[in-house]
Specification:
Layout (H helix, E strand, L loop, with lengths): L1 E10 L2 E11 L4 E5 L6 H8 L6 E8 L2 E2 L5 H7 L4 E4 L12 H12 L4 H14 L16 H13 L5 E5 L7 H14 L4 E6 L2 H7 L2 E6 L2 E7 H6 L4 H8 L35 H5 L5 E2 L3 E3 L8 E12 L2 E12 L3 E5 L6 H9 L6 E6 L2 E2 L5 H6 E4 L3 H4 L6 H11 L8 H11 L6 H4 L8 H13 L5 E5 L7 H18 L2 E6 L2 H7 L2 E6 L2 E8 L5 E4 L8
Parallel strand pairs: 3-8, 3-9, 6-7, 7-8, 15-20, 15-21, 18-19, 19-20
Antiparallel strand pairs: 1-2, 1-4, 4-5, 9-10, 10-12, 11-12, 13-14, 13-16, 16-17, 21-22, 22-23
Length: 543
């Protein structure tokens, strides 16, 4: 039905779309998601032959090469073959009645009389939930939601095969948005549809395919349910974490940094927490994987830690039995269970503080045979009681800088600045007076933040947080957890939380693992309503 190959669009010397390739079958519903400026509307206008920029590449609709048609032929195709419902509700002429505008489209493009056109338009707006009397009204007499329905009606009046919806629910309240969604589900059933939207819930409900657009390039493309429930590009996950309509469990998180126009390398590299040098130099190709296409030099969100068949017993008492799980870059999971279920034992086995009876640990897909300095440069742990885990004879500067000396990091002159940066991250003072204080001079909440600063001073990839709010009141607990989510967002930190509070786990977790008497009973994830449900198979995660 639609074939787009190597499509690029430039305005002056700036390319807004870059080498976009897509294909759609008849009747498919494709959602294109991405932040403002991604190129969604430019793509829509280019499909209609309305783009004012310089167009390169090919666009074919039912075998017709759109980019080679003259203006007259393109005009004939619009409204008959392909049409658009514009984002801006000012697209409606304020000087004409609604009926006049809709009838005009039919009469101009078809061979129907005014009476036939009127009956068709009346039937159409009834389908959209509006009474025939609305045809006599002027746009100023309509609400925002009613205007949005009229714009959709304008795109539908000549029954085109392809409908483009450009932000069809923007600026609407929740009730109007839900009403529009229901209307669209009914009237677009047999159409080929492209939906440009910021509304990820709308994309989830109406589309069967989804394309994630950023900086004019497609970064992830696949089945809607697979992409939204298990995002595999860091940008896609960032969008989902920012969406209140889908991410009702874990607290909202944003995407670090701001968009910068890049004509070289990966367009997302300046904001990506797992970038490598290649990302700055070479543009990743959109490559087929098992269930989708991804443009990422690392193949998508990388697996940073894997635990396989971990078992442990103490004096004939089984604590862990055949535990398996993985942790991905920038992800937070919670090991949830009652006291004595084996949660902390998992953490200690990972860190090498306890030797398991059997099982394997993999760090960045390499089996951990010994825990040398490089291992602890990548993974750190914050313990439950900071008064026990921090040496009381060291002042705050010595506590936080200790890992730098242990790791024999070069340039000792830079240590004070590194320590101060770590303290900034955990929102503690970093003046000389504070650095000279000793642990007993701090509150429990302050000392736990010092423990977190010590853990992140090396900028590890993984942090294990073992009941770190157990001794804190709820207000301090909230600050500590919010702090860790902010650090995760900015540094791309992967976090394993060990908790027994399910309400807290839902607020901080991408996924929840349930432990019962040392047995990992099942993987669980947060569903679209923020509830916990059993999830079988690969590790699904929302937001």
């Amino acid at each position: 039905m639609i074939e787009i190959s190597g499509l690029s669009v430039s305005f002056s010397d700036k390319r807004v779309l870059k080498d976009v390739s897509l294909s759609m079958e008849r009747g498919e519903k494709l959602a294109i998601i991405g932040e403002s400026g991604a190129g969604k509307t430019t793509l829509a206008l280019t499909l209609l032959g309305l783009c004012k920029g310089r167009v390169e590449g090919k666009i074919s609709i039912d075998g017709i090469e759109i980019t080679k048609l003259d203006k007259r032929t393109l005009k004939e195709l619009r409204w008959r073959k392909i049409s658009i419902a514009f984002q801006n509700i000012d697209a409606i002429n304020p000087a004409l009645r609604i009926g006049e505008q809709l009838i005009e489209i039919i009469v101009e493009k078809g061979d129907k009389s005014l009476k036939e056109a009127y009956l068709e338009v009346a039937n159409l707006i009834n389908l959209l939930g509006l009474h025939e009397s609305y045809l006599e009204r002027f746009p100023s007499q309509l609400s925002g939601g009613e205007k949005r329905k009229i714009i959709i009606a304008m795109a539908l009046v000549n029954s085109p095969e392809i409908i483009i919806l450009d932000e069809p629910t923007s600026s609407l309240d929740v009730n109007a948005r839900d009403e529009i969604t229901e209307v669209l589900r009914d009237v677009l059933d047999d159409k080929t549809v492209i939906i440009n939207t910021h509304d990820l819930k709308l994309a989830y409900e109406l589309s069967n395919k989804i394309a994630v657009l950023y900086g004019g390039r497609i970064l992830e493309y696949g089945e809607t349910r697979a992409v939204i429930e298990n995002p595999r590009h860091p940008y896609t996950r960032g969008l989902l974490r920012s969406s209140p309509s889908l991410n009702r469990g874990k607290d909202l998180q944003g995407i670090p940094g701001v968009f910068e126009y890049r004509d070289r390398g990966c367009p997302f590299s300046n904001r990506c927490v797992q970038k490598i040098e290649l990302c700055e130099q070479e543009t990743p190709k959109l490559i087929d994987t098992s269930d989708r296409k991804i443009a990422c030099h690392k193949g998508g969100i990388e697996k940073v830690l894997e635990v396989k068949s971990l078992s442990k017993s103490f004096i004939k008492r089984r604590v862990l039995k055949d535990v398996n799980f993985s942790l991905y870059g920038g992800e937070s999971i919670t090991i949830l269970g009652k006291t004595g279920s084996g949660k902390s034992t998992i953490a200690k086995c990972i860190m090498g503080l306890i030797e398991p009876d059997s099982g394997e640990i993999f760090l960045f897909n390499k089996k951990v045979n010994n825990r040398d300095l490089s291992f602890y440069r990548n993974i750190q742990m914050v313990f439950q009681d900071p008064f026990e885990s921090i040496n009381p004879r060291l002042n705050i500067y010595e506590v936080v800088s200790e890992p730098l000396y242990i790791q024999r990091m070069k340039d000792k002159d830079s240590y004070p600045e590194i320590v101060k940066t770590a303290l900034k991250y955990v929102q503690l003072p970093y003046n000389d007076e504070f650095l000279r204080l000793y642990p007993h001079q701090l509150s429990g909440g302050e000392l736990q933040r010092v423990a977190i600063a010590r853990a992140i001073v090396l900028k590890p990839k993984i942090l294990i947080a073992d009941e770190i709010t157990a001794f804190l009141d709820v207000s301090i607990q909230a600050k500590i957890m919010r702090l860790l989510l902010d650090i995760q967002e900015n540094l791309g930190l992967s976090i394993i939380f060990i908790l027994h509070d399910i309400a807290l786990a839902k607020k901080v977790s991408d996924r929840i693992l349930i432990l019962n008497d040392g047995i990992l009973e099942d993987y669980r994830s947060l569903d679209l309503g923020g509830n916990i449900y059993e999830y079988e198979g690969t590790m699904g995660r929302i937001g």
